[in-house]
Specification:
single chain, alpha+beta, Immunoglobulin-like, 4 domains, eleven-stranded mixed sheet, 14 helices, 24 strands
Length: 612
């Protein structure tokens, strides 16, 4: 494998360097030519406080840095592809996990360098021009990381999720690290890179008050701006999407003789934010804007806006239409369809939840619009433009109405991995045989533990056998493979095994990554105890009238006097003068209630015997 990777790296270097000169030399040549013509003007001009000036030396160093990172990224990507193609399923999982770790580290390093550069600039250790160059360089590196991540994602779809978890790939953490690169990937940072590599000209203004803000004005009338603010760690969606939409509209610029129209909305439930895409078109200009609003604070944390002459936009649109082939005859109707937008008017965006979706055109509700969910019709909007839609249990969601789209990034459900995991066990003459399968395929080379003792390793078909631990009445079976772990609970009754908990039972998985997600069940009374009084912690809050009741199992029951403590009498009215009232509970416990009537969880049976 090492020899293959070496060969791959050499080939990649040759391929990359064969392609780099065309781009790099153009950038270098452009930089030098432009610098020769404008260096005196650039350096002698009197800038505003926010204007960024670029020197010839900065352009040259930026081109070299960006090209070097391009070469390194291509070499690593090519090596990864070769190792993946030549590997078995387990090897592929290891290769994907290793590559994922590399990309995550690079993404985290870029984010750290961005934060360090921002702190240094705000502290006066970097000039505005030096800081802008740092952002430009980080933009080039970030784009390479994202390109590598997209290639990795395409490959990982062909590898078992269980094998990826076993190999140590944390897909959620990797995605989070890549998403954190947004601050150096927007149109503002990209414009800085173009400016510092000499591939574009124009005036750039940069501010850092309250976050990074970059505005670029091109010589041909183009204008773009980007604003980034830091977010908190709360990824909940507590702000209504309609409220977030109004906040987003407030961040839009005010174009002359034009108004922004909402074209697309999306809900990113996993990351906890809303995204809105706006646009406008006039006789001479076309504009696009994207605004992201934090779902918990309701504050805008990202704005990207771009305005360019209509001629260029028209040419780009015509090229795209030519590539697609047929163009619809009724262009005006087509433009109306594109302006149709969908958003969540009411409800919680989550698996299996029912939400109210509203169709809008130019900001007004639209009736009689057919709405589809992932291509399947789900209803038609009423007079107020709304329709009720029930979301699926998992997966990506796309709601469409004409050309209007509403997308959901539902929170990743770690249970999906465990729903497809089974551990079927049988007991025969004191020997347990367990077969572990994932998506109907055996999970081989997994270590099996029984009641915390290592007892076996599964074969290629996922089967392992071991003796029942001495004196065991319950059996806790853990299956461990690499960094993946799952547990299953069984009861031994009359020579048979009965599964009581575990991945196949559909209850909370016990994987470390998911620990605490449904913590309400952690202390639940087990099945043997659940039937005694039909009481567990989940029921403790059902009748909370007596907040200070002295016993969990009696939560919600009337505090009876010494004659009313039996279960049969627990629900009777507190008619007796010695009954315990909620407001007088402390005095009652001191003066009116004898020790034999104070019921707690551990002494309940003794109390009942005493009463009898």
């Amino acid at each position: 494998m090492g020899q293959d990777r070496t060969i791959a790296c050499l080939l990649a270097v040759l391929v990359v360097f064969a392609g780099v000169p065309a781009t790099a030399s153009a950038a270098l040549g452009g930089s030098a030519a432009q610098a020769a013509q404008t260096s005196n003007t650039t350096q002698d001009a009197q800038p505003t406080n926010s204007t960024v000036n670029v020197t010839v030396g900065q352009q040259l160093s930026t081109v070299i840095s960006a090209t070097s990172d391009d070469v390194q990224s291509e070499v690593e990507a090519t090596g990864f592809e070769l190792e993946y193609e030549n590997g078995s399923d387990e090897v592929r999982a290891e290769v994907v996990a290793e590559r994922g770790g590399e990309l995550r580290d690079r993404a985290d390093d870029i984010r750290d360098e961005y934060e360090d550069a921002s702190e240094s600039y705000e502290a006066g250790a970097l000039t505005k021009s030096e800081y802008a160059q740092r952002i430009a360089t980080l933009n080039a590196r970030a784009e390479n990381v994202v390109a590598g991540y997209e290639r990795l994602e395409a490959r990982s779809t062909n590898v078992s999720k269980l094998e990826l978890r076993a190999a140590g790939l944390n897909q959620t953490a990797l995605k989070r690290s890549v998403d954190n690169l947004d601050s150096v990937r927007g149109i503002g940072a990209a414009a800085l890179l173009q400016r510092f590599t000499g591939t574009d000209t124009g005036e750039i203004e940069l501010e850092t008050a309250g976050g990074l803000s970059v505005e670029v004005a091109g010589e041909d009338g183009e204008f773009s701006r980007e604003i980034n603010h830091d977010r908190d760690d709360d990824t909940s969606l507590t702000v209504a999407q309609s409220t977030a939409l109004e906040t987003a509209r407030g961040e839009l610029s005010s174009p002359t003789n034009a108004s922004w129209t909402l074209r697309k909305a999306s809900v990113h439930e996993d990351s906890g934010y809303y995204k809105f895409e706006f646009g406008f078109e006039t006789a001479d200009r076309v504009g696009e804007s994207e605004v992201r609003v934090d779902g918990s604070s309701g504050e805008v944390f990202r704005v990207e806006e771009e305005v360019e002459p209509t001629d260029e936009a028209e040419e780009a649109r015509e090229d795209a239409e030519d590539a697609r082939g047929d163009v619809e005859d009724d262009r005006e109707a087509d433009e109306d369809d594109r302006e149709l937008a969908l958003l969540v008017a009411d409800g919680t965006v989550a698996a299996n939840e029912t939400i109210t979706v509203q169709a809008l055109q130019a900001g007004e509700p639209v009736a009689n619009v057919a709405v589809s969910l992932n291509g399947e019709p789900v209803g038609t909007t009423g007079v107020d433009g709304t329709v009720a839609v029930t979301l699926p249990s998992s997966g990506d969601v796309e709601l469409t109405a004409g050309e209007g789209e509403l997308e959901f990034e539902l929170r990743e459900d770690e249970d999906d991995l465990y729903r497809n995991l089974r551990a079927d066990a049988t007991l025969d003459d004191g020997t347990v045989t367990v077969t572990v399968t994932y998506e109907d395929s055996g999970v081989g080379n997994a270590t099996v533990y029984a009641n915390d003792a290592q007892v076996a390793t599964t074969g290629g078909d996922g089967t392992a056998a071991f003796a029942v631990p001495d004196g065991a009445e319950e059996l806790d079976v853990a299956v461990v493979k690499g960094e993946f772990e799952a547990e299953f609970e069984y009861e031994l009754r009359n020579g048979t095994l009965t599964q009581t908990d575990g991945a196949d039972a559909g209850e909370d998985d016990v994987d470390e990554d998911d620990a605490g997600e449904d913590g309400a069940d952690e202390d639940d009374v087990d099945e043997d105890d659940a039937d005694e009084d039909d009481v567990d912690e989940d029921d403790a809050g059902e009748d909370d009238a007596d907040e200070d009741d002295v016993d969990e199992d009696d939560a919600g029951e009337d505090d009876a006097d010494e004659d009313d403590v039996d279960e049969d009498d627990a629900g009777e009215d507190d008619a007796d003068e010695d009954d315990v009232d909620e407001d007088d509970e402390e005095d009652t416990e001191e003066d009116d209630v004898e020790a034999e009537t104070e019921v707690d969880t551990d002494d309940e049976e003794e109390t009942e015997e005493g009463d009898d």
